[in-house]
Design a protein that fits this description.
The chain is of the alpha/beta class. 35% of the residues lie in helices and 19% in strands. The chain has a single domain, classed as Rossmann fold (3-Layer(aba) Sandwich), CATH 3.40.50. The chain is built from twelve helices and twelve strands. It is globular.
Length: 335
């Protein structure tokens, strides 16, 4: 059990013979390595539009390939109601809020602090800190906003503070019916001691793991697999490389070959891959009008991102990894 000072969340898993087949069937995905095709957009149009609406309502702009990443993960994840899962390297990204909106219980893990998470996110889903220090209470946030410095004459400062408080209260008063739960956990993915082993149905990760070195990524994957239940699944998107691993300097992320991904994620030669279509899929991606014409505005502000200065010229493409934790019987036999 994970215990905080304010509230506790029970993530323990009891291992009983009759549960083995249930947990094995919970995620019947086949392990695979799949470069993400732009066909995902049309195949999952309802989900794509829902993600766009949710992002707009949260004032979030999506990364240039994130609609592919998100739809691939959700397509392979299946129903999430009453399932316990982790969003690894979540930041304030849209996936955790979407999953909670669908009825999931999500542990949102990121080494960057979200202790002062904006109220527009808290109004969307029930958000709490896994530990007391992980999330500042709402009333503390209101006081902080009220005390925020403002320039100009005395009356103007008070008007500005009043507008900030009114905005915050508006978020809280007009929040939709909230389902699910998001637990904020500000922690390095390589060391998640507050999460018991074999406790989560699934772990998802959107374009976050490639920001580790190969050695660091190996440690992160081992820790992620520790907390997944037998039969549970890891669904992660990274960046693909055709011939050799290389570092994409603008986005500070590694691009990996199929061989490297198999080694890092401890996948045998059996799980299928579509790396043979690398050139074909990259050409289609470069010609994708939907992604090109809806490129987020923040890309045009800098060259330190995945699409420097907002010029549409994909130099890599996203790849999805599906890895399932083996189910073992009472005598250690894999099922």
């Amino acid at each position: 059990m994970i215990v905080g000072k304010r509230e506790s969340i029970d993530l323990t898993t009891k291992t009983m013979p009759k549960q083995l087949s249930r947990e094995h069937n919970l995620n019947n995905q086949r392990e695979k390595i799949e470069i993400l095709s732009i066909d995902l957009l049309d195949q999952n149009r309802t989900t794509v539009e829902a993600l766009k609406r949710l992002s707009r309502s949260l004032s979030l702009e999506l990364g240039w390939h994130y609609l592919l990443d998100l739809t691939w993960i959700l397509q392979n994840l299946g129903p999430v109601v009453n399932r316990r899962m982790m969003d690894a390297g979540a930041g304030v990204g849209v996936l955790q809020w979407y999953l909670a909106q669908q009825g999931a219980e999500v542990i949102s893990v990121d080494r960057a602090s979200r202790a002062e998470l904006a109220l527009r996110f808290r109004s969307r889903s029930r958000a709490q800190g896994l530990r007391k220090t992980d999330l500042i209470p709402v009333h503390h946030m209101l006081l902080k906003d009220f005390s925020r410095e403002a320039s100009g004459p005395f009356y103007r400062r008070w008007v500005m503070r009043g507008m900030i408080i009114a905005r915050d209260l508006l978020w809280l008063m007009h929040r939709p019916h909230r389902t699910g739960q998001v637990w904020i956990y500000n922690q390095d993915l390589a060391s998640m001691s507050d999460i018991p082993e074999n406790s989560l149905d699934a772990v998802v990760s959107v374009s976050a793991l490639e920001h580790n070195t190969a050695q660091g990524l190996k440690r992160v994957i081992e820790e992620i697999m520790r907390v997944i239940k037998p039969g549970g699944v890891l669904l992660a998107t990274l960046a693909a490389a055709r011939d050799q691993d290389w570092f994409h300097e603008p986005s500070s992320g590694w691009c990996y070959t199929e061989a490297s991904l198999r080694q890092l994620f401890d996948l045998s030669d059996a799980p299928p891959s579509n790396y043979s279509r690398y050139d074909e899929l990259l050409k289609a991606l470069r010609n994708c009008a939907e992604l090109r014409d809806n490129l987020a505005r923040f890309y045009s502000h800098s060259d330190k991102n995945g699409m420097p200065w907002g010029k549409w010229d994909p130099s890599y493409q996203p790849v999805g990894i599906c890895k399932q934790k083996q189910v073992t019987g009472w005598k250690g036999k894999k099922i």
